[in-house]
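Predict both folds.
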Amino acid sequence: MNRIALFIPYFGQWPAWAELYFASCTQQQGVDFHYFTDLQPIAPPPQLSLHQSSNLHFHPISFADYCRLVSDRLGIDFQPERPYKLCDLRPFYAIVHSDLLREGNYDFWGFADLDLVWGDLKAFYTDDLLHRYDIFSTHDDRFSGHLCLLRNKPSLNTAALRLPHWKERLCSQQNYALDEMAFTLLFYPQARLLWKVHRHLYLRYASHFRNEFRSYGKFCQWINALCGLRRRGIYLKEMYTSPYVTPNFVPAGGASYRYADGHITDLATGEALPYLHFVFLKTIWTPQQATPPAHTTDLLISPDGILPWQSSKEVKFPTSPTNIPTRR
């Protein structure tokens, strides 16, 4: 079995869904989660955790000390004012945490978000697939910041050092989205074409497409194949993990998902997901809606919040006139 290390520095306070998140982490066989944080560890409640939490590793450290560690490992003066700047650091994790990569003898390393709940990750990234490719993303046009995996080998571990002006950008207080934009272009410069087509065609004329999101995905697959992306060991595949919702818009199907027995199912399509990303859902949830109910392992996750599945009721959601979600 391939072993994966996910590095996640996190400072501030745990989100309302933290217990559910950590419980879903414990169900990921072969995946170790390394947290660098000034927060107290959270033990997943027994009713949500199917396995013992031996794959959760908490490394106590303050934000200031973590920044000093980064400065020492990269030879820069890394002093960000806000922890969100750590997103730009993600491509450098294999350098910053090279000691953990060696000690754990990992096959892959990567980065991930905390505003999500995991499904069955290894059902999507099987050992056969992991043997065939070196880089994995759940987007089809870029490396995904909420989950990206890279093979543990020198050429990939140090690839970030080839990013243009990386020292200046890391030392700046500005966020450059190095993890999703510049890091993608390092391996796939043709992605610029995809982004331009999406911005100038699919978004501008969205009403002309039955489903702009899926249509753009098919276009990406065609360009990716034309560029021989998979022959180069890069596996970009849109997993539709981040439903787009706002207070005034919810896509057809209601953006509703069932979480049960460590699996996530999109109720509109019946498809399983490797994880469900709350990036838009959390913007319309109240703290109470974002808090999972106690004493249940069967959940409905929707714009109405995280609810017990058996007490959930059908809800009519507002939709836009075209009922077409925009890109991420």
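Second protein follows, with its predicted structure tokens after the sequence.
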Amino acid sequence: MKWSPLRVGGLLVVFLSTTGCHLIPPTHPVVFTSQPDLPQLLDHIGRSSDSIQRLSADGIQLRIEGAPVSLRSSIDFERPNRFKLTGSFMATSELDVGSNEQFLWIWGRHAPGALLYVRHDQYGQTIANQLMPVPPSWLIEALGVLSIDPLGQYTGPIVREDGNLEIKSQWIRQGEPLWRTWVVDPKYGFIVEQQVRDAQGRLLASVWASDHRHDPEWNVSLPRHLDVQINMPGEELPFRMSLDIGDYTINGLSPTDPQFWDMPDPGNYPAYDLADPNVYRKLQRMTAVPAPRGVADLRGEFRPQYRGYSQSPTMRR
């Protein structure tokens, strides 16, 4: 598998990762002794998520399908929209994906070999919307930190064959309806699987969460392992990555560095504003494929390939 900005853009649908660090024991309190109804499920999910205002984790092993090595990574998240995922190999920075009050961005040493960024309010009207089939907030949701809209449309729960409970909800993104599926453990109430589909029912993204640990101080359970799959526009094979997470720090102190949430300095790497109407041509110069004939052709025509990574065995859940 070769790399392209379409695949690299999948990193932004990720997810989305102080003091006071504490170990989370592998036991869980029983939340439901009988099958809960929809209001009970939503109330539990909402209260658990709302208790997390800040989240960080270090020492994450990030494995990306197509990359020959794993990255030592860290996640930081601070409500409402600050997050940062960084990765390094042998003490060399390889990846910086993030979001602050104004921008979201991705920088990769090998892929994309540039800094790509866009303002939040321009995301839906630019190429960024095509590079990222799910919005940046889904990175945080992949960890099970969800937002419950009191006016949202929710249906369920449905009991699946595996015994877990399934909830569906509608999500409006830039005027376009998306459908979310949450799969909930019927006894402990944590999220074990999520899906996002477009209005035509096409699967955009999935995440499987496992090895949950309970934090008694904040009464939340978070996964230690994630398998993420994103179906990139115009790509035959999905983008896949996995994260093995050690200990979380919940609601610790904010970083003292005032520039912590800033976009990275690209240094000698080019920087591309994805809201620039000429960005298609600029990105195409990094590839050998024909330039796209227009925005409508982007999904089927624009598949830049990058040097720096070789094919690795397919990742399995």
